[in-house]
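Co-fold these.
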Amino acid sequence: MKQLAPLSATPPPSTPVVGALVSATGPGKEAMHPLLPIMRNGLDPHEELGRLRHEHPVVAFPMLGLGKAWLVTRHEDVRAVLGDAGTFGNELSLARDVTMPHTAGQWRPGGLGFHDSPVHTRRRRLLAPAFRTRVIRDMARRLEDIVATQLERMAQAGPPADLVRALAEPVASAVMSELIGVPDADRRATGSGRFDLSGELGTSIAAADRSLEDVVELVARQRAGRRAGLLGRLISEHGDQLDDRELAGLIDGLLTGGLGTTASMIATGCLVLLRDDRLVTSLRREDAPIDRLLDELLRYVCVAQLAFPRFARRDVILRGQRIRAGDAVFCSLPTANRDPALGTDMDEVDPHRRTTAHLAFGFGVHRCLGAPLARLEMRVVFPALLRRFPGIRLAVPAERIEFKRFSVIHGVESLPVTW
Ligand code: HEM
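Predicted complex below.
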């Protein structure tokens, strides 16, 4: 049966009650905790999300500042939403009631994720050549050097080490710095804070604004002086069509899209590997089906908790729920990736699992542009780590590893290892 259909006369079912994370919003009305969509239990989506996927796959929730919002948790429905740019757009101007605190109305995100065609198509075409398979393949040798340097530093410092600070972050940063052509210090200035939603939404928007200002300065400097990397190429080839702010938006989108996600995926991927001898053995085999294992890690860990918000362009019914034009729709990628409809034991890591159409990189026209690069980084880092430190193991029991809380990009806070 087609799940996504134009608005019918069917009345929507009443708002469901969501177990322990219910917060009352009025007599007889209950809604779920606004942060539930980014809550995890270790590496698993919060159990309430699993329950929602089963019982209320499309559910209203109170997203601060974005009017009425819906959470979608089933794999099939997430693909339906992300794959239908004609019904669900990314432009904030489509939202019915944007009342974000702080910089609210003036927030003009650059990059790709908050734009639709034709702006999105034009910008994505400018960046796409840098991410073609051949171009990324040519980066492999350089990437191996970057990883080897970092592993050597780790060896010299001696055990124990925190794989987040000693490997994952520096590798992801160095790759991004070279790709884009921004020096380390400047790149660091664009750090996170914006993915942490434990405080007010306005705080994370303010962090995003500050980062963008830093990048605008970088762009101006390269326009006037020495040019490097993708930024230098964009200035040289398209600098007359793009002003500093638009260029900065594109670069900022790459930095924020590519840095924390990849670092988190490397570190958290290491945790999943090191807590399971089976996976380490499988990865050490010469003929290891590494791409299958990488896909399984991406599916299982799924660091990006949500796809970019989508906004309904017109009234639609999804799984019996009436989504009105202007409502925001959030897709929970980790919950969709664990959907039992995809196969058996989806909460387990199975290195031999036949590739699933996982959604760790999103889906549709906004699917992650940097996916080939992220894959390459994982493909190089994991085997290199196991080769360089044959006896590497977790320095604390896996149950004591701390995870980020309330972060749009999930991952471990630190990963102590020894050898
Ligand atoms: C493991 C690492 C990564 C993960 C899990 C990841 C995940 C994602 C996800 C879920 C989306 C949103 C898709 C949607 O809303 O439909 C996205 C978009 C994007 N990602 Fe990644 N990403 C990763 C690495 C990277 C890297 C390394 C780069 C760049 C160097 C990058 C650049 C982008 C860009 C530019 C977009 C916006 C695409 C668009 O709107 O057209 N990502 N990514």
